[in-house]
Write a structure and sequence with these properties.
- About 55% of the residues lie in helices and about 10% in strands.
- With about 110 residues, it is mostly helical.
- It has a three-stranded antiparallel sheet with strand order 1-3-2.
Length: about 110
């Protein structure tokens, strides 16, 4: 029971729709590429596909960047810092993929 109520799993379960969709897009991109690190640009592309499939109006890139930053502030994502343009910054999960999948189940 305690395993299923970790802080990060609770944070994912209480995330907004767009935050959950962003996490789903990160997972989809990891699956597509076979690498557990990607760029913001690649996640946005996956997110747009997922949003359309779910009938959700995609957010602007700026708003999506805010969603990404919020997930990073909750320590669910790790974002590369530095002077790179936002689109090319690297993203990694700071949570086990299985925990994310478990938390995203309705």
């Amino acid at each position: 029971q305690e395993m299923f109520s970790s802080t990060k799993i609770r944070a994912i379960r209480h995330a907004s729709l767009h935050e959950k969709m962003f996490l789903r897009a990160v997972l989809a991109e990891f699956r597509r590429s076979g690498i557990e690190e990607t760029t913001f640009k690649m996640v946005v592309q996956q997110l747009n596909v997922l949003d359309r499939a779910e009938g959700i109006t995609p957010l602007s890139t700026t708003m999506t960047s805010f969603v990404c930053s919020r997930l990073a502030s909750c320590r669910l994502l790790l974002l590369e810092g530095g002077r790179k343009p936002a689109l090319y910054r690297k993203i990694r999960l700071n949570v086990n993929q299985d925990d994310v999948i478990f938390a995203l189940r309705e």
